[in-house]
Protein backbone atom coordinates (compact mmCIF):
# COMPACT_ATOMS: atom_id res chain seq x y z
CA UNK A 1 0.00 0.00 0.00
CA UNK A 2 2.86 2.39 0.87
CA UNK A 3 6.40 2.08 -0.46
CA UNK A 4 9.16 4.49 0.41
CA UNK A 5 12.63 4.35 -1.12
CA UNK A 6 15.63 6.44 -0.21
CA UNK A 7 13.53 9.24 1.23
CA UNK A 8 15.52 12.36 2.05
CA UNK A 9 14.08 15.52 3.50
CA UNK A 10 15.78 18.70 4.56
CA UNK A 11 14.02 21.57 6.33
CA UNK A 12 14.94 24.81 4.55
CA UNK A 13 16.89 26.30 7.47
CA UNK A 14 18.67 23.09 8.50
CA UNK A 15 22.17 22.14 7.41
CA UNK A 16 21.64 18.43 8.01
CA UNK A 17 18.73 16.50 6.46
CA UNK A 18 16.03 15.37 8.90
CA UNK A 19 15.46 12.19 6.90
CA UNK A 20 18.60 10.61 5.50
CA UNK A 21 17.49 8.12 2.88
CA UNK A 22 14.96 5.89 4.61
CA UNK A 23 13.32 2.82 3.08
CA UNK A 24 10.21 1.02 4.23
CA UNK A 25 6.97 -0.42 2.97
CA UNK A 26 3.60 -0.94 4.55
CA UNK A 27 1.29 -3.73 3.44
CA UNK A 28 -2.46 -3.27 3.07
CA UNK A 29 -4.17 -4.01 6.38
CA UNK A 30 -0.97 -3.65 8.36
CA UNK A 31 -0.30 -1.48 11.41
CA UNK A 32 3.19 -0.13 10.96
CA UNK A 33 4.96 1.89 13.64
CA UNK A 34 7.75 4.40 13.57
CA UNK A 35 9.45 4.47 16.94
CA UNK A 36 11.99 6.98 18.00
CA UNK A 37 12.79 9.92 20.19
CA UNK A 38 11.55 13.46 19.53
CA UNK A 39 13.26 15.02 16.53
CA UNK A 40 14.16 11.65 15.01
CA UNK A 41 12.10 12.35 11.89
CA UNK A 42 8.96 10.30 12.64
CA UNK A 43 6.44 13.07 12.08
CA UNK A 44 8.39 14.47 9.13
CA UNK A 45 8.08 11.13 7.34
CA UNK A 46 4.35 11.12 8.00
CA UNK A 47 3.95 14.72 6.86
CA UNK A 48 5.59 13.82 3.55
CA UNK A 49 3.16 10.93 3.17
CA UNK A 50 0.15 13.12 3.80
CA UNK A 51 1.48 15.68 1.38
CA UNK A 52 2.20 18.56 3.72
CA UNK A 53 5.88 18.56 2.70
CA UNK A 54 6.36 18.19 -1.02
CA UNK A 55 10.02 19.03 -1.49
CA UNK A 56 11.53 15.66 -0.72
CA UNK A 57 13.97 13.44 -2.54
CA UNK A 58 13.42 9.75 -3.17
CA UNK A 59 10.38 7.73 -4.05
CA UNK A 60 7.10 7.52 -2.19
CA UNK A 61 4.41 5.37 -3.74
CA UNK A 62 0.95 5.11 -2.22
CA UNK A 63 -1.65 2.69 -3.55
CA UNK A 64 0.38 2.12 -6.70
CA UNK A 65 0.79 5.76 -7.58
CA UNK A 66 3.65 8.13 -7.02
CA UNK A 67 2.74 10.52 -4.23
CA UNK A 68 3.42 13.58 -6.36
CA UNK A 69 0.99 12.29 -9.01
CA UNK A 70 -1.94 12.20 -6.59
CA UNK A 71 -4.33 15.15 -6.76
CA UNK A 72 -6.80 16.24 -4.10
CA UNK A 73 -8.60 12.88 -4.30
CA UNK A 74 -5.70 11.51 -2.26
CA UNK A 75 -7.18 13.16 0.80
CA UNK A 76 -10.39 11.15 0.33
CA UNK A 77 -8.27 8.02 0.85
CA UNK A 78 -6.38 9.09 3.93
CA UNK A 79 -7.21 10.11 7.48
CA UNK A 80 -4.84 11.93 9.77
CA UNK A 81 -4.87 11.87 13.56
CA UNK A 82 -2.64 14.76 14.62
CA UNK A 83 -0.34 14.67 17.62
CA UNK A 84 -2.01 17.66 19.28
CA UNK A 85 -5.67 18.61 19.43
CA UNK A 86 -6.67 21.00 16.66
CA UNK A 87 -10.29 22.09 16.60
CA UNK A 88 -12.33 25.25 16.40
CA UNK A 89 -12.71 26.00 20.09
CA UNK A 90 -15.80 28.19 19.66
CA UNK A 91 -17.66 25.45 17.79
CA UNK A 92 -19.18 22.39 19.40
CA UNK A 93 -17.71 18.96 18.87
CA UNK A 94 -20.53 18.12 16.46
CA UNK A 95 -20.10 21.35 14.50
CA UNK A 96 -16.39 20.61 14.13
CA UNK A 97 -17.13 17.11 12.88
CA UNK A 98 -19.91 18.28 10.54
CA UNK A 99 -17.67 20.90 8.99
CA UNK A 100 -14.82 18.55 8.17
CA UNK A 101 -17.19 15.77 7.06
CA UNK A 102 -18.64 18.19 4.50
CA UNK A 103 -15.36 18.27 2.55
CA UNK A 104 -15.53 14.57 1.63
CA UNK A 105 -17.55 13.15 -1.22
CA UNK A 106 -18.10 9.82 0.55
CA UNK A 107 -20.91 9.72 3.10
CA UNK A 108 -19.75 8.64 6.56
CA UNK A 109 -20.25 4.95 7.33
CA UNK A 110 -21.04 5.72 10.93
CA UNK A 111 -23.18 8.60 12.14
CA UNK A 112 -21.45 11.39 14.00
CA UNK A 113 -23.44 10.49 17.13
CA UNK A 114 -22.17 6.92 17.04
CA UNK A 115 -18.59 8.10 16.57
CA UNK A 116 -18.96 10.29 19.67
CA UNK A 117 -20.43 7.33 21.51
CA UNK A 118 -17.53 5.14 20.39
CA UNK A 119 -15.05 7.36 22.24
CA UNK A 120 -17.33 8.15 25.19
CA UNK A 121 -17.97 11.73 24.14
CA UNK A 122 -21.75 11.53 23.72
CA UNK A 123 -22.37 13.89 26.63
CA UNK A 124 -20.06 16.50 25.10
CA UNK A 125 -21.32 16.34 21.53
CA UNK A 126 -23.07 19.71 21.71
CA UNK A 127 -20.61 21.44 24.00
CA UNK A 128 -18.08 23.93 22.65
CA UNK A 129 -14.69 22.33 22.25
CA UNK A 130 -13.13 25.00 24.49
CA UNK A 131 -14.90 23.20 27.36
CA UNK A 132 -13.24 19.85 26.50
CA UNK A 133 -10.25 18.45 28.40
CA UNK A 134 -7.11 17.61 26.41
CA UNK A 135 -8.01 13.93 26.46
CA UNK A 136 -11.48 14.70 25.06
CA UNK A 137 -9.98 16.83 22.31
CA UNK A 138 -7.59 14.01 21.42
CA UNK A 139 -10.51 11.60 21.17
CA UNK A 140 -12.22 14.13 18.90
CA UNK A 141 -9.02 14.18 16.80
CA UNK A 142 -9.28 10.42 16.52
CA UNK A 143 -12.89 10.28 15.33
CA UNK A 144 -12.36 13.17 12.92
CA UNK A 145 -9.55 11.17 11.30
CA UNK A 146 -11.72 8.12 10.74
CA UNK A 147 -15.14 9.65 10.06
CA UNK A 148 -14.86 9.49 6.24
CA UNK A 149 -13.82 5.82 6.34
CA UNK A 150 -10.37 6.26 4.78
CA UNK A 151 -8.28 3.32 3.55
CA UNK A 152 -5.04 4.66 4.97
CA UNK A 153 -4.68 6.20 8.41
CA UNK A 154 -1.83 8.18 9.88
CA UNK A 155 -1.74 8.54 13.63
CA UNK A 156 0.90 10.73 15.25
CA UNK A 157 1.27 9.75 18.92
CA UNK A 158 -2.33 8.50 19.12
CA UNK A 159 -2.33 7.89 22.87
CA UNK A 160 -0.58 11.08 23.96
CA UNK A 161 -2.56 13.01 26.56
CA UNK A 162 -5.03 10.19 27.16
CA UNK A 163 -5.76 8.55 30.50
CA UNK A 164 -4.99 4.81 30.60
CA UNK A 165 -8.61 3.79 29.98
CA UNK A 166 -9.04 6.09 26.99
CA UNK A 167 -5.61 5.10 25.67
CA UNK A 168 -6.60 1.46 25.88
CA UNK A 169 -9.84 2.18 24.00
CA UNK A 170 -8.06 4.09 21.25
CA UNK A 171 -5.59 1.23 20.84
CA UNK A 172 -8.51 -1.17 20.60
CA UNK A 173 -10.17 1.03 17.96
CA UNK A 174 -6.94 1.03 15.97
CA UNK A 175 -6.91 -2.77 16.09
CA UNK A 176 -10.56 -2.78 14.98
CA UNK A 177 -9.63 -0.57 12.03
CA UNK A 178 -6.84 -2.99 11.14
CA UNK A 179 -9.35 -5.85 11.31
CA UNK A 180 -11.51 -3.88 8.88
CA UNK A 181 -8.60 -3.89 6.41
CA UNK A 182 -7.29 -0.38 6.95
CA UNK A 183 -3.61 0.37 6.50
CA UNK A 184 -2.30 2.25 9.50
CA UNK A 185 0.93 4.15 9.99
CA UNK A 186 1.60 5.11 13.60
CA UNK A 187 4.40 7.20 15.01
CA UNK A 188 5.02 6.98 18.70
CA UNK A 189 7.67 7.17 21.35
CA UNK A 190 5.59 4.81 23.51
CA UNK A 191 7.12 1.37 23.16
CA UNK A 192 4.20 -0.19 25.03
CA UNK A 193 1.71 1.25 22.53
CA UNK A 194 3.79 0.06 19.60
CA UNK A 195 4.14 -3.39 21.12
CA UNK A 196 0.38 -3.69 21.56
CA UNK A 197 -0.85 -2.46 18.19
CA UNK A 198 1.91 -2.70 15.57
CA UNK A 199 2.45 -5.63 13.26
CA UNK A 200 5.88 -4.27 12.41
CA UNK A 201 7.95 -1.44 13.76
CA UNK A 202 10.92 0.57 12.56
CA UNK A 203 13.32 2.27 14.93
CA UNK A 204 14.23 5.70 13.66
CA UNK A 205 17.06 7.74 15.12
CA UNK A 206 18.61 10.90 13.65
CA UNK A 207 16.71 10.44 10.40
CA UNK A 208 17.88 6.87 9.77
CA UNK A 209 16.02 3.60 10.17
CA UNK A 210 18.01 1.27 12.37
CA UNK A 211 15.92 -1.87 12.16
CA UNK A 212 12.48 -3.01 10.94
CA UNK A 213 10.76 -6.15 12.18
CA UNK A 214 7.82 -7.44 14.18
CA UNK A 215 7.90 -6.53 17.90
CA UNK A 216 7.88 -10.25 18.68
CA UNK A 217 10.95 -10.99 16.55
CA UNK A 218 12.81 -8.00 17.90
CA UNK A 219 12.19 -9.02 21.49
CA UNK A 220 13.20 -12.57 20.71
CA UNK A 221 16.31 -11.49 18.86
CA UNK A 222 17.53 -9.12 21.52
CA UNK A 223 16.12 -10.77 24.63
CA UNK A 224 17.01 -13.91 26.55
CA UNK A 225 14.85 -17.02 26.42
CA UNK A 226 15.24 -17.67 30.10
CA UNK A 227 13.24 -17.78 33.31
CA UNK A 228 14.34 -15.93 36.39
CA UNK A 229 13.25 -17.49 39.70
CA UNK A 230 13.62 -16.02 43.17
CA UNK A 231 12.85 -18.02 46.31
CA UNK A 232 11.79 -16.76 49.74
CA UNK A 233 15.11 -17.91 51.12
CA UNK A 234 16.71 -15.27 48.89
CA UNK A 235 18.17 -17.61 46.32
CA UNK A 236 17.94 -16.36 42.74
CA UNK A 237 18.59 -18.43 39.61
CA UNK A 238 18.07 -18.29 35.88
CA UNK A 239 16.97 -21.27 33.75
CA UNK A 240 16.71 -21.65 29.95
CA UNK A 241 13.10 -21.82 28.75
CA UNK A 242 13.89 -24.71 26.42
CA UNK A 243 12.79 -28.03 27.99
CA UNK A 244 12.03 -26.20 31.23
CA UNK A 245 9.44 -28.77 32.30
CA UNK A 246 12.06 -31.52 32.05
CA UNK A 247 14.87 -29.53 33.60
CA UNK A 248 15.75 -31.49 36.79
CA UNK A 249 17.81 -28.59 38.11
CA UNK A 250 14.82 -26.23 37.83
CA UNK A 251 12.36 -28.74 39.29
CA UNK A 252 14.51 -29.40 42.35
CA UNK A 253 15.26 -25.66 42.78
CA UNK A 254 11.59 -24.67 43.05
CA UNK A 255 11.07 -27.36 45.65
CA UNK A 256 13.77 -25.93 47.91
CA UNK A 257 11.47 -23.19 49.22
CA UNK A 258 8.36 -21.21 48.26
CA UNK A 259 8.73 -19.21 45.04
CA UNK A 260 8.73 -15.46 45.69
CA UNK A 261 8.99 -14.26 42.11
CA UNK A 262 9.22 -15.86 38.67
CA UNK A 263 9.51 -14.06 35.32
CA UNK A 264 10.88 -14.53 31.81
CA UNK A 265 13.91 -12.59 30.64
CA UNK A 266 12.24 -11.48 27.42
CA UNK A 267 13.42 -8.01 26.46
CA UNK A 268 10.94 -5.18 26.35
CA UNK A 269 10.72 -3.22 23.13
CA UNK A 270 12.36 -0.31 24.92
CA UNK A 271 15.33 -2.46 25.89
CA UNK A 272 15.60 -3.63 22.31
CA UNK A 273 15.50 -0.03 21.16
CA UNK A 274 18.35 0.89 23.49
CA UNK A 275 20.39 -2.11 22.39
CA UNK A 276 19.84 -1.41 18.70
CA UNK A 277 20.27 2.34 18.70
CA UNK A 278 22.49 2.82 21.72
CA UNK A 279 20.12 5.52 22.86
CA UNK A 280 17.42 5.71 25.46
CA UNK A 281 14.08 7.13 24.46
CA UNK A 282 13.72 10.70 25.59
CA UNK A 283 10.35 12.27 24.99
CA UNK B 1 -19.57 25.50 -4.17
CA UNK B 2 -21.29 23.69 -1.31
CA UNK B 3 -17.94 23.25 0.44
CA UNK B 4 -17.11 26.93 -0.02
CA UNK B 5 -20.43 28.12 1.38
CA UNK B 6 -20.23 25.71 4.29
CA UNK B 7 -16.88 27.06 5.43
CA UNK B 8 -17.95 30.64 4.81
CA UNK B 9 -20.95 30.13 7.09
CA UNK B 10 -18.83 28.50 9.78
CA UNK B 11 -16.75 31.67 9.86
CA UNK B 12 -19.89 33.60 10.74
CA UNK B 13 -20.66 31.21 13.59
CA UNK B 14 -17.15 31.77 14.93
CA UNK B 15 -17.48 35.56 14.58
CA UNK B 16 -20.79 35.66 16.43
CA UNK B 17 -19.41 33.53 19.28
CA UNK B 18 -16.40 35.81 19.80
CA UNK B 19 -17.24 39.13 21.42
CA UNK B 20 -14.23 41.02 20.08
CA UNK B 21 -14.97 39.93 16.51
CA UNK B 22 -18.71 40.48 16.86
CA UNK B 23 -18.02 44.00 18.10
CA UNK B 24 -16.11 44.84 14.93
CA UNK B 25 -19.26 44.27 12.91
CA UNK B 26 -20.61 47.44 14.54
CA UNK B 27 -17.85 49.61 13.04
CA UNK B 28 -19.55 50.17 9.67
CA UNK B 29 -22.77 51.22 11.46
CA UNK B 30 -20.86 53.91 13.34
CA UNK B 31 -19.29 55.08 10.08
CA UNK B 32 -22.64 55.31 8.33
CA UNK B 33 -24.10 57.29 11.22
CA UNK B 34 -21.17 59.71 11.12
CA UNK B 35 -21.32 60.19 7.35
CA UNK B 36 -25.10 60.54 7.21
CA UNK B 37 -25.89 62.50 10.34
CA UNK B 38 -22.61 63.63 11.88
CA UNK B 39 -20.71 65.15 9.00
CA UNK B 40 -23.41 67.32 7.28
CA UNK B 41 -24.13 69.54 10.32
CA UNK B 42 -20.42 69.71 11.06
CA UNK B 43 -19.59 70.97 7.56
CA UNK B 44 -22.48 73.40 7.74
CA UNK B 45 -21.14 74.84 10.98
CA UNK B 46 -17.44 74.79 10.03
CA UNK B 47 -17.26 75.70 6.35
CA UNK B 48 -13.49 75.28 6.18
CA UNK B 49 -14.14 71.51 6.31
CA UNK B 50 -15.99 71.50 2.98
CA UNK B 51 -12.88 71.08 0.76
CA UNK B 52 -11.99 67.98 2.76
CA UNK B 53 -15.26 66.12 2.16
CA UNK B 54 -13.67 63.81 -0.40
CA UNK B 55 -11.05 62.99 2.19
CA UNK B 56 -13.75 62.07 4.72
CA UNK B 57 -15.28 59.81 2.09
CA UNK B 58 -11.90 58.18 1.41
CA UNK B 59 -11.46 57.48 5.12
CA UNK B 60 -14.98 56.11 5.43
CA UNK B 61 -14.42 53.76 2.47
CA UNK B 62 -11.15 52.46 3.86
CA UNK B 63 -12.55 52.10 7.37
CA UNK B 64 -15.40 50.04 5.92
CA UNK B 65 -12.77 47.60 4.67
CA UNK B 66 -11.12 47.47 8.08
CA UNK B 67 -13.96 45.70 9.86
CA UNK B 68 -13.60 42.50 7.85
CA UNK B 69 -9.85 42.94 7.42
CA UNK B 70 -9.55 42.68 11.19
CA UNK B 71 -12.13 39.90 11.53
CA UNK B 72 -10.70 37.73 8.74
CA UNK B 73 -7.17 38.26 10.01
CA UNK B 74 -8.13 37.19 13.53
CA UNK B 75 -10.13 34.16 12.34
CA UNK B 76 -7.12 32.94 10.36
CA UNK B 77 -4.66 33.66 13.19
CA UNK B 78 -6.91 31.73 15.57
CA UNK B 79 -6.94 28.86 13.09
CA UNK B 80 -3.15 28.91 13.05
CA UNK B 81 -2.82 29.16 16.83
CA UNK B 82 -5.18 26.26 17.42
CA UNK B 83 -3.48 24.24 14.64
CA UNK B 84 -6.81 23.84 12.83
CA UNK B 85 -5.00 25.19 9.75
CA UNK B 86 -3.09 21.90 9.60
CA UNK B 87 -6.33 19.99 9.18
CA UNK B 88 -7.10 21.97 6.02
CA UNK B 89 -3.82 20.66 4.63
CA UNK B 90 -5.16 17.09 4.66
CA UNK B 91 -8.76 17.46 3.47
CA UNK B 92 -9.98 17.31 -0.14
CA UNK B 93 -10.41 21.06 -0.39
CA UNK B 94 -8.12 22.86 -2.80
CA UNK B 95 -6.21 25.86 -1.54
CA UNK B 96 -8.09 28.05 -4.01
CA UNK B 97 -11.43 26.81 -2.65
CA UNK B 98 -10.13 27.46 0.85
CA UNK B 99 -9.20 31.07 0.07
CA UNK B 100 -12.44 31.67 -1.81
CA UNK B 101 -14.48 30.31 1.07
CA UNK B 102 -12.67 32.46 3.62
CA UNK B 103 -13.14 35.69 1.67
CA UNK B 104 -16.38 35.22 -0.22
CA UNK B 105 -18.55 36.77 2.48
CA UNK B 106 -16.02 39.33 3.80
CA UNK B 107 -15.36 40.55 0.25
CA UNK B 108 -19.03 40.67 -0.70
CA UNK B 109 -20.01 42.34 2.55
CA UNK B 110 -17.30 44.99 2.26
CA UNK B 111 -18.20 45.63 -1.36
CA UNK B 112 -21.86 46.00 -0.36
CA UNK B 113 -21.06 48.44 2.43
CA UNK B 114 -19.05 50.75 0.21
CA UNK B 115 -21.53 50.51 -2.64
CA UNK B 116 -24.25 51.56 -0.20
CA UNK B 117 -22.06 54.28 1.26
CA UNK B 118 -21.50 55.90 -2.14
CA UNK B 119 -25.26 55.85 -2.75
CA UNK B 120 -26.37 57.28 0.59
CA UNK B 121 -23.60 59.84 1.21
CA UNK B 122 -25.12 63.26 0.68
CA UNK B 123 -22.09 65.14 -0.68
CA UNK B 124 -21.25 63.92 -4.20
CA UNK B 125 -22.97 62.57 -7.28
CA UNK B 126 -21.17 59.36 -8.19
CA UNK B 127 -22.41 57.22 -11.09
CA UNK B 128 -23.46 53.63 -10.39
CA UNK B 129 -20.74 52.33 -12.72
CA UNK B 130 -17.95 54.23 -10.98
CA UNK B 131 -19.42 53.34 -7.59
CA UNK B 132 -19.46 49.67 -8.57
CA UNK B 133 -15.84 49.69 -9.75
CA UNK B 134 -14.47 51.60 -6.74
CA UNK B 135 -16.41 49.39 -4.32
CA UNK B 136 -15.17 46.22 -6.03
CA UNK B 137 -11.61 47.52 -5.91
CA UNK B 138 -11.76 48.67 -2.29
CA UNK B 139 -13.07 45.31 -1.10
CA UNK B 140 -9.80 43.71 -2.26
CA UNK B 141 -8.15 45.32 0.75
CA UNK B 142 -9.73 42.61 2.93
CA UNK B 143 -8.10 39.48 1.41
CA UNK B 144 -4.77 41.20 0.73
CA UNK B 145 -4.58 42.54 4.29
CA UNK B 146 -5.62 39.29 6.01
CA UNK B 147 -3.50 36.99 3.85
CA UNK B 148 -0.45 39.24 4.12
CA UNK B 149 -0.58 39.40 7.91
CA UNK B 150 -1.22 35.68 8.18
CA UNK B 151 1.77 34.96 5.96
CA UNK B 152 3.99 36.73 8.47
CA UNK B 153 2.68 36.21 11.99
CA UNK B 154 2.70 33.09 14.13
CA UNK B 155 0.28 34.04 16.89
CA UNK B 156 -2.34 36.49 18.12
CA UNK B 157 0.21 38.73 19.87
CA UNK B 158 2.29 39.19 16.72
CA UNK B 159 -0.96 39.56 14.82
CA UNK B 160 -2.09 42.54 16.89
CA UNK B 161 1.23 44.30 16.26
CA UNK B 162 1.03 43.76 12.53
CA UNK B 163 -2.63 44.79 12.45
CA UNK B 164 -1.64 48.15 13.94
CA UNK B 165 1.17 48.50 11.40
CA UNK B 166 -1.08 47.55 8.48
CA UNK B 167 -3.79 49.96 9.66
CA UNK B 168 -1.27 52.75 9.31
CA UNK B 169 -0.03 51.50 5.94
CA UNK B 170 -3.49 51.36 4.37
CA UNK B 171 -4.14 54.93 5.48
CA UNK B 172 -0.69 56.28 4.61
CA UNK B 173 -1.64 57.36 1.04
CA UNK B 174 -3.84 60.02 2.70
CA UNK B 175 -0.61 62.03 2.89
CA UNK B 176 -0.70 62.24 -0.91
CA UNK B 177 -3.60 64.68 -0.55
CA UNK B 178 -1.37 67.13 1.27
CA UNK B 179 1.76 67.02 -0.85
CA UNK B 180 2.50 68.77 -4.17
CA UNK B 181 1.07 66.99 -7.21
CA UNK B 182 4.49 65.78 -8.41
CA UNK B 183 5.05 63.80 -5.20
CA UNK B 184 1.72 61.97 -5.35
CA UNK B 185 3.01 59.01 -7.41
CA UNK B 186 5.46 58.24 -4.60
CA UNK B 187 2.56 56.72 -2.70
CA UNK B 188 1.65 54.46 -5.60
CA UNK B 189 3.50 51.52 -4.10
CA UNK B 190 0.79 51.26 -1.45
CA UNK B 191 -2.19 49.61 -3.14
CA UNK B 192 -4.78 51.73 -1.33
CA UNK B 193 -3.34 54.86 -3.00
CA UNK B 194 -5.16 53.87 -6.20
CA UNK B 195 -8.46 53.58 -4.34
CA UNK B 196 -7.97 56.97 -2.71
CA UNK B 197 -7.09 58.69 -5.97
CA UNK B 198 -10.03 57.04 -7.75
CA UNK B 199 -12.41 58.32 -5.09
CA UNK B 200 -10.98 61.83 -5.28
CA UNK B 201 -11.31 61.91 -9.05
CA UNK B 202 -14.85 60.52 -8.82
CA UNK B 203 -15.85 63.24 -6.36
CA UNK B 204 -14.33 65.89 -8.64
CA UNK B 205 -16.04 64.46 -11.71
CA UNK B 206 -12.67 63.58 -13.29
CA UNK B 207 -11.92 60.34 -15.21
CA UNK B 208 -11.19 57.31 -13.06
CA UNK B 209 -10.59 54.62 -15.69
CA UNK B 210 -6.79 54.65 -15.61
CA UNK B 211 -6.58 54.86 -11.82
CA UNK B 212 -9.01 51.97 -11.43
CA UNK B 213 -7.20 49.87 -14.02
CA UNK B 214 -3.86 50.34 -12.27
CA UNK B 215 -5.58 49.65 -8.95
CA UNK B 216 -7.17 46.39 -10.10
CA UNK B 217 -3.92 45.23 -11.68
CA UNK B 218 -1.87 46.11 -8.62
CA UNK B 219 -4.32 44.45 -6.23
CA UNK B 220 -4.41 41.35 -8.44
CA UNK B 221 -0.63 41.07 -8.30
CA UNK B 222 -0.59 41.68 -4.53
CA UNK B 223 -3.35 39.14 -3.97
CA UNK B 224 -1.56 36.54 -6.09
CA UNK B 225 1.70 37.11 -4.21
CA UNK B 226 0.26 37.04 -0.68
CA UNK B 227 -1.98 34.08 -1.50
CA UNK B 228 1.08 32.09 -2.62
CA UNK B 229 3.01 33.05 0.48
CA UNK B 230 0.03 32.26 2.68
CA UNK B 231 -0.51 28.82 1.12
CA UNK B 232 3.15 27.98 1.69
CA UNK B 233 3.02 28.91 5.35
CA UNK B 234 -0.47 28.45 6.72
CA UNK B 235 -0.99 24.70 6.48
CA UNK B 236 2.32 23.34 7.78
Automatic annotation (TrEMBL), chain A:
Molecular function terms, GO-annotated: ATP binding; ATP hydrolysis activity
Origin superkingdom = Bacteria
The UniProt record lists the ABC transporter domain at: 2-231
Keywords, A to Z, come to: ATP-binding, Nucleotide-binding, Transport
Q: Provide the protein name.
A: ABC transporter ATP-binding protein
Specify the taxonomic lineage.
Bacteria, Pseudomonadati, Bacteroidota, Flavobacteriia, Flavobacteriales
Q: Which InterPro entries match?
A: AAA+_ATPase, ABC_transporter-like_ATP-bd, ABC_transporter-like_CS, ABC_transporter_ATP-binding, P-loop_NTPase
Keyword Signal (UniProt): no
Q: What are the transmembrane regions?
A: none
TrEMBL record, chain B:
**Superkingdom to which the source organism belongs:** Bacteria
Alphabetical UniProt keywords? Membrane, Transmembrane, Transmembrane helix
TM stretches of this protein: 21-40, 52-77, 98-120, 126-149, 161-179, 210-231
Q: What is this protein called?
A: Uncharacterized protein
Q: Which organism is it from?
A: Putridiphycobacter roseus
Amino acid sequence: MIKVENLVFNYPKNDVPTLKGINFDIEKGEVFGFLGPSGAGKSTAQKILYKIYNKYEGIAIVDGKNLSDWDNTYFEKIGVGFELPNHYLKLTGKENMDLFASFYSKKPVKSIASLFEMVDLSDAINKPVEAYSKGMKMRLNFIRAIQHDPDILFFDEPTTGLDPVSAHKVKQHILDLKAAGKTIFVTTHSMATADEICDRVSFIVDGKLQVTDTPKNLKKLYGKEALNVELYNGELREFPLKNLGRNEDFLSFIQEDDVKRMHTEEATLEEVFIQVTGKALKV
Amino acid sequence: MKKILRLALVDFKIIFRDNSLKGMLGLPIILFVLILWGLPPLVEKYEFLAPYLSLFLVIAVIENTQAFSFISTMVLIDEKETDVAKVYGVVPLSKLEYILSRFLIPYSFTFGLNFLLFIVQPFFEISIGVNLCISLLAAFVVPVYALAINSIVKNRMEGMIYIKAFNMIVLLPIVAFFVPEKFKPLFGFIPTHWIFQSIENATLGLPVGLLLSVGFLYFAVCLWAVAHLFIRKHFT
